[in-house]
Design goal:
Organism: Metabacillus niabensis
Subcellular location: Cell membrane
Number of helices: 15
Order of helices and strands: HHHEEHHHHHHHHHHHH
Protein name: Aldouronate transport system permease protein
Distance between the termini: 36 Å
Strand order of the largest sheet: 1-2
Strand content: under 5%
Shape: globular
Membrane topology: Multi-pass membrane protein
Keywords: Cell membrane, Membrane, Transmembrane, Transmembrane helix, Transport
Oligomer: single chain
Structural class: mainly alpha
């Protein structure tokens, strides 16, 4: 019987191999149709523009176009390295994103757990709504609110300091305090929205396990530590891997509207790859340099994702992406 079963399974596999790609596509046409919008989106915005990467290796001339401009090889990358801009931009972008990812995820997990522990359904819904609202506030409006608070002449902060006899603070000329302002602003805007994923994961936990732990004498902190947090581990790892893919892609809208693109006094601590590319394109009109930075950004991000996934696969294979 075992021999017959193995032979039948082998026959099925061979038939599947012999089936043409088109037949398999036709069999799965419903799933493919559902995926079609995403396929079209990535085809247009991710794959069709890829030949434009050649721009990073030429000295772009408007009159000649991309493929007729003079080929300079790695000269654009060499210029970035020699000026020191590439290292500063990389450090700022990675440092900010690591702060966003680590602090953001831990804060989102904490908020999701606290929401789960609330007993009042009405208060839970109101709390979720209030924390969710900042996600829908435009980055332009956030920049305006920040300016109204931090402006040297008319800001709320300095008006308060003057009223109690203290000297006003020159926020927009002090690069040391802006990492804290940017990180806090990001966490304020994203925590409520990000906590939804973790809260949904907690809702998928079998309540009978928590009830059994409570009957056995486990208090709230013990249930959180030994049941809920281990349950959230796979979700945390998957979201972490997704986030690492964009570790070199800064939040351009937030940085641009909070700091601006031309405040040279704050470049030391606030200039990231996105703002640099924007400035090279819109102010200096250097398309080749901007494309070189973008290519470096994509390749570096790809390497980080592959490396992180390899580490996860080595220590926790069931939680890796591929």
């Amino acid at each position: 019987m075992k021999t017959v079963t193995v032979q039948s399974q082998t026959t099925i596999v061979e038939k599947q191999k012999k089936e043409s790609v088109f037949k398999r596509m036709w069999k799965n046409r419903t799933l493919l149709l559902m995926c079609l919008p995403a396929i079209i989106f990535f085809a247009i915005f991710a794959y069709l523009p890829m030949p434009g990467l050649y721009l990073a290796f030429v000295n772009y001339d408007y009159s000649l176009g991309i493929f007729e401009s003079a080929f300079v090889g790695l000269e654009n990358f060499r210029f970035l390295i020699m000026t020191g801009d590439l290292w500063k931009l990389t450090f700022n972008t990675v440092a900010y994103n690591l702060a966003f990812i680590i602090l953001g995820n831990f804060l989102q997990i904490g908020v999701a757990i606290m929401l789960n522990e609330l007993r009042s359904k009405w208060f839970k819904k109101v709390s979720q709504t209030i924390m969710f609202l900042p996600h829908f506030i435009s980055a332009v409006l956030i920049g305006l609110l920040a300016y109204n608070i931090l402006s040297y002449d008319y800001g709320t902060l300095n008006s308060f300091l003057k009223s109690i006899g203290m000297d006003p603070v020159q926020t927009y000329s002090n690069p040391a305090i802006w990492p804290y302002i940017i990180v806090v602003t990001f966490l304020w805007q994203s925590t409520g929205y990000g906590s939804i994923v973790y809260f949904a994961a907690i809702m998928g936990l079998d309540k009978s396990i928590l009830e059994a732990a409570e009957i056995d004498g486990a208090n709230a902190f013990q249930r959180i530590r030994y049941i809920i947090i281990p349950w959230l581990k796979p979700t945390f790892i998957i979201l972490l891997l997704f986030s690492l893919g964009g570790v070199l892609r800064g939040n351009f809208g937030l940085f641009y509207n909070l700091v601006g693109a031309n405040n040279t006094m704050l470049y030391e601590s606030t200039d990231i790859i996105e703002t640099y590319v924007f400035r090279t394109l819109m102010t200096n009109f250097n398309f080749s340099l901007g494309s070189a930075v973008s290519l470096y950004q994509s390749v570096f991000g790809f390497i980080i994702v592959i490396t992180a996934n390899w580490l996860v696969k080595k220590f926790s294979p069931e939680n890796s992406l591929f």
